[in-house]
Amino acid sequence: QQVIGVLALQGAFAEHVNALKRLPMSARPRTLLVRTPAELEQCTALIIPGGESTTMALVAHRSGLLEPLRAFVKTRPVWGTCAGAILLSEEVVSTKQGGQELIGGIEVKTARNGWGSQIESFEAPLRIQGMDDSKRQFVAVFIRAPVVLELKGSANGPPIEVLARLPLHLLPPALSTMDPSDPRTIVALRQGKHLLTTFHPELTKDDRFHDFFVRHCVLADAQAP
Ligand code: GLN
């Protein structure tokens, strides 16, 4: 059976576990809160929750988890939500001085708190590519969310697939004139077995993203030759 770990150093980890436990029996994995390298070792996949990415990186470093996490993303499926998405980025532009430790694994460049301080949090109905019942919009909750600045990709990495974009009319006037193909409109994407969402699917009762991760990333990876 699959064991999905949820990194439990800081942030909204309990909500992810609850969402996984609500999945239908056929897709419901075992879950494990991960705070140590030994716990990470037992997982077949991992979710990195939202919270505060610098704090999470600092605690991961102190817990001796940073290197094991970097090794983990090289072989197993990982999904990062919000702060987790920042940590999984290959490159991050920070609003504060000084760099921050990253885990990497998804070939994108993101910016922390990318919508600026005027728009701290908002909700947006999204259409998600490949999601069950795709006509039913997914109400996404954004809280001091990062934005995607660039899909970097590489010759040896799997292709990056955009799963959802923010409808431009929901953006403040200064931003709503941006090109619809601007990477900043991308709020959910997938690269190989990894998933990145700049919003928080664990904070709503709609569990389709968790179901998507389990079926399309975790189970698909376990069945791959
Ligand atoms: N702004 C936070 C950070 O930079 C992320 C916010 C969140 O996860 N809700 O880490």
Automatic annotation (TrEMBL):
Gene3D superfamilies: 3.40.50.880. It is an enzyme of class 3 (hydrolase). The keyword Lyase applies. GO terms for cellular component: cytosol; glutaminase complex. Pfam families: SNO (PF01174). The active site is at C82, H200, E202. L-glutamine binds at G51, E52, S53, R112, I143, R144. CDD domains: GATase1_PB. GO terms for biological process: pyridoxal phosphate biosynthetic process; pyridoxine metabolic process. One of its GO terms (molecular function) is glutaminase activity. Keywords: Glutamine amidotransferase, Hydrolase, Lyase, Transferase. InterPro entries: Class_I_gatase-like, PdxT/SNO, PdxT/SNO_CS. It catalyses: L-glutamine + H2O = L-glutamate + NH4(+). Its EC number is 3.5.1.2. PROSITE patterns: GATASE_TYPE_1, PDXT_SNO_1, PDXT_SNO_2. Belongs to the glutaminase PdxT/SNO family. This is glutaminase. The lineage of its organism: Eukaryota, Fungi, Dikarya, Basidiomycota, Agaricomycotina.
